[in-house]
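Annex B. Sample input.
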Amino acid sequence: MDRALKYEDVYLIPNYSQCGSRSECSTLTKFGPQEFKLPIVPANMKSVICPSVAEWMSENNYFYIMHRFDIDILAFLVSANEANWRTISISVGVNEKALDVLIKAASLMLRIDYITIDIAHGHSANMASMIERVRRSFPDTYLIAGNVATAQGVIALSDWGADAVKVGIGQGSPCTTKDKTGFTMPMFSCVWDCSKLPKERGFDFEGEPSKNIPIIADGGIKCNGDIAKALVARADMVMAGGLFASCTDSPAESIKVGGNEYKAYFGSASAQNKGHNNHTEGILRNISSSGMTYEDRLKEIKQDLQSSISYAGGRDLACLKKVGYHLA
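Annex B, continued. Sample output.
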C-alpha cells in the first residue's frame, strides 16, 4: 500500500459466484475453543455491553467480551458459572486489583473461557508482565491481549503468551487518542499490516497473511460493509461499538432531543467512563438510536455478510481472504 487506508478508502471487487441463494452462505466462525454465529463482537465498553446483554449473547451463540469498568467481575464470574453459560468471557486491566480477582477466581475453580487483557497501549512492559501473571492462574484459558497497531506488537504479545491480539489505536468514533497524542493508524491498513509476519520471525511467507496469530480488528466500523472489509484485511473477529450502542436495548443511556431518540456513547478513556479528567482520550457522543434490538442488528449483520460472501464468490467467510480491492 502506498498510503494508510481507512475502511471507507477501500472498494471490494466482486468475484464470479456459483451461490444459488445468499441464505445458503455460512457466517459461522471458529474463534479460540468455540464456534460462533458471526465474526462480530460488541466493544467491551460500558455503553455497549452489560451482564444481561452478555448472557443473551452467550446463550445465542455470539461472542462477547464483558467490560471491566465499575463492575464486580468476580460476582459476574460466579453468576455465569452457576448458570453454566455457554461462553464466559471477561476483560481485565493490568493493575493488582484485576490480578487479585483472577487469583480468587482460580482458587474458586471458576470457569473462564476467554480473558481479554485490555489496555490502550498493549505493546508495553505492563502487558508483558500481566500476560505472564495471568497465565500462572489460567494456563489453559484462551487469552486475548491488546491493543496494538503494528505487526511487531502482534508478534510481541503472541511471544509473551497471548492466543489472539486486538488491534487498533485511536480509530473508534468516541476516541480522541489521535487528536490528543498524534498516534493512530487507519484501520484497513492497520489490520492488513498486523496480519503479516516479518521474515525474522522465521516464517517464509514473503508478506502473506499470518495464519497462526488471530486478530480482532477494533475500531473504525461505521456500517456493516466495513465488517466485510476488515475480514478482507485478514481480521478473524471484528469489534464494533456504535453499531451496538445505538440499539434500543443497549446499556447506553437513552436521550430525547427534539422528539428524536439518541443513545449516549462514550469511549473507555473518556471522563464519563473514568470519572475524572486526568489523561482522558475519549468523548461522549449522542448517536441516533437505530430502532433495532441487538437481535435485530445481529440478524441484519448476518444477512449483509451472507451477501458479502456471495459477491466474494464463495460459500463461507474464508472466501473473503481472496477478495481484491480498489482505492477510493
